Every structure is written in C-alpha cells, then in structure tokens.
Prior knowledge:
The complex is a heterodimer of chains A (367) and B (127). With 367 residues, chain A is α+β, with helices and mostly antiparallel strands.
Amino acid sequence: MSDKTVLFDKHLEYKGKIVDFAGWQMPVNYGSQVDEHHQVRNDAGMFDVSHMVILDLHKATEAGDIKALLQRLLANDVAKLTENGKALYSCMLNPEGGVIDDLIVYYMTDDWYRIVVNAGTAAKDLAWFNQHADDFGVSVKARDDLAMIAVQGPHAREKAFEVLPLDVVEAATPLERFFGADCGEWFVGRTGYTGEDGFEIMVPDSEAPALWDKLAGAGVKPCGLGARDTLRLEAGMNLYGSDMTEETSPLISGLGWTIAWLPEDRDFIGRSIIEKEKADGVRQKIVGLILEERGVLRSHQKVVVEHDGKQLEGEITSGSFSPSLQKSIALARVPIEIGDFCGVEIRGKILKARVVKPVFVRDGKAV
Amino acid sequence: MSEVPLELKYTKSHEWLRVEDDGLVTVGISDHAQELLGDLVFVELPETGTEFVAGDECCVVESVKAASDVYMPISGEIVEINEALVDEPEIINSSPYDSGWLFKVQPSAEEIEDLMDADAYQAEIAE
C-alpha cells in the first residue's frame, strides 16, 4: 500500500497518470511528459514534491550544536553557511564512503537548520540523523504537516507572485539563488531540480490544494515526475539510487565538487575512506553522453571505451531522450581514460556517442 | 478510455491487425499501448523482406519513459514499413490506428482469426 500526498486528489482532478514512486502514488504526467518538459523550459510548470521529506533540526539542550552535528554527518561543510537562509547541497556518507543520500540544508539560525531529503531514503536518513543527534544535543523533527510544490521555469517567478500571499511574496522577492526564507508556516527556497529558475514552496498541508489551484489558474501548469526526470537529466543533476548509491563513493559519482576537504581536521563520516580513494587515484568518473545515432540511451547500458588497443567498460547511470536537444542523452560512469567518443551497447549493437561535460541544458539554453 | 476500433484484431501484447483488400495485414500498436508508453521518441522497424514466426520480437518502440518490444502477431514476411515513423515516431501517439501503423505483413499461415476481436481486447485491457 503506497502513500498519497495531500495533493493526490488534485492530481486526479488534473488528469494525472498515477504511478508508484518510492512508495508514493505520484503523477508521472498529466497527458504528455514532453509537453510538460517544454512548459518548464519555456514558461512555468509546477511539481508536487510533497513526498520529499523536510527535517527541522533544533537544539534539544542549552549546549546543543546543530552545526557540529552536520559537520560530522555531511561531506560538504555547513560552515560555508554564514548568511541566514543560505542553502547548501551535500552528500551524507556512510562509514564506507558510500552515499546514504543527497540533500539540501538551509541555515536559518544557529538554532534552526532545515533539511530536505529524498522520499525513498527518508526513513533511513531520519534513523541516521536520530542515531547521531543526541550526542550533539539536537532534536530532529520530520515535518509531515508540510506539503511542497516546486514552481519552475523562466516565468515561474512572476506567475507564482500573482497568487502567493503578499507576505510570502515579500519574503521571496529578495531571495538570491540557493537561498530560502520562512514566512510563518510557509517557506520559500529559490531552488529546484530542473536547471531553471524558480521556487520550492513549503506550505501547510491544509493550504496546499488551494495553492495548487491558484498556481494552475495563473498558468503554472502541473507537471509530472516524467518531465522532472528529463529536466534534471538535461541539467546534469544526479538522481539518488541511479547515479549514486550506498555502494558508490561521491568521487565516482560526479559529486567530488560537493566534498569540503578543508579544514583537514573536520572528521566527517566516510572521510577516511574517500580520502584514501582520492590519494590512490580515482579510476572512474561521470560524464555526459550524447547519442550520435538513432536510439535511446537507458540506465545500465554498457559503455565501451577504446584505450591503447584495449577495450574498457563503463555503464550508463541515467539515460533518456532529451526533449530540448531532440537527441538521446545520458550520464555514465566510465573509466577516466575515456576520450571524445565512446560506444554504447543497445540491443546487441554498438552505437556511437559523444562524450561531453555532464550538463546539457541550463536556463533554457543548450550548454 | 482508450479507443478500440471494432473492425480490428488484437493481441495480448497490444498489437492491432487489419486485413487489407489486397490480403496484406497491417500491424500497429493499440491506443491503450501508446497511452501506457507515453510520448514516443524512437522506433526501430524491421527490415522489409524479413520473415518472422508469430511471437517473434520484430520491432522496438521507445517512449521517453521506456523501451517496449513489439511482437509479430502472425507468421509472415514484412513487405512494407512505415518510414514516416523514423523521423516522427510521435505519429503513433496522435494516430495509433491510422498514420501510426508500423508495418505490413504477407501472412504465411491462417492465424489471424485466432486473435482477439475488439470486445475481447476491450475486456482484456479493462482488467
């Protein structure tokens, strides 16, 4: 039996096609995932992301230290967060250096950090936080009372401002990218998972369905998880469970940039293992692939790399058809020896793909 | 509700068949199938002249979401393929029973009458 978000009835009303995703009944599209993709790249779309879990961290004791807890649990360093509302993207590693989850943490005050984690990993994340929180005098609360709607696209901002409560508009207006602001029980982050500008709006469950209707009325069209996946893939953003897992280190998952190695004495969980991995020399990396022939790249397809007369192998971690580029694209974990081209095995045939940086589209433009 | 034209034959794997006046059989995928797949972006058609036995994988249709095999519903030889789908696979979404046909077969056996009629297929997809 899977869960429903508070917007489930709205998805049915707006003719969403429902699928099971990470234990949630979610809309994969409302008709055409390609149309929804273009809607976000060219105008404004919205996604129900209420299945993702919001965690609020507060001090449980006078001496409680949220910052110290997060410096222990996260591979990126929350010490970078010096301004109120600033957000940081980070991996949370297990002691073996694998990725437990990727998340966004907002620094609100010294007594309040807000974290957003993936739906499929929320239970283990919460257990992991709780396992360590006591030692640092921190309480962790899952905000199941909040829904979350992501409004994304070049016109998302102006269209959302037409219908958001005035005090929320006031709080959201000055936000720079990757900042969040609270406004009573509402919260707005200038963040997203599409490569477009926009907001992720957290709203009390009871007010979410009305907000959905108002946004739709302002021309922010409902978009499903299908479009969300092609948008994030074009933007070169990793998907947990596909591009990185508990079995892969961030160094071979295109996430090396999110690790804060300095200060050297910050002992975050997993550090010793990935530090050794780095010192020994990382042998794989994530690249972008653009298929030069007809076909569609899919996860788990084999990548073939010719190097020094030898044949090396890699694997596609996320692949699809890119509606913006009208070509098939992928993220792939490959040997570092890879050159400008490689082969991909599709149904027994080797097709040619071009190797690019793992980002294809940003702010509506091909990269 | 998916459209299920009365005059066609159907398979459990969601292919449809139409017997043409010249005895050839046109094959495509049903409205229900294209709805399940979503936006189609790639079709790998069989080569004309290839002979297949009923049940063979003979064609692949891919949507943004997933790849799906098309199975040969009857035994026979491929005599014509719908080349328009190579550049515009989305025709299958907009017109699954008409301009979105996949290929034409010269049947080599009397198998078509054993396939489902519209009522049976309607019941099949309603389950």
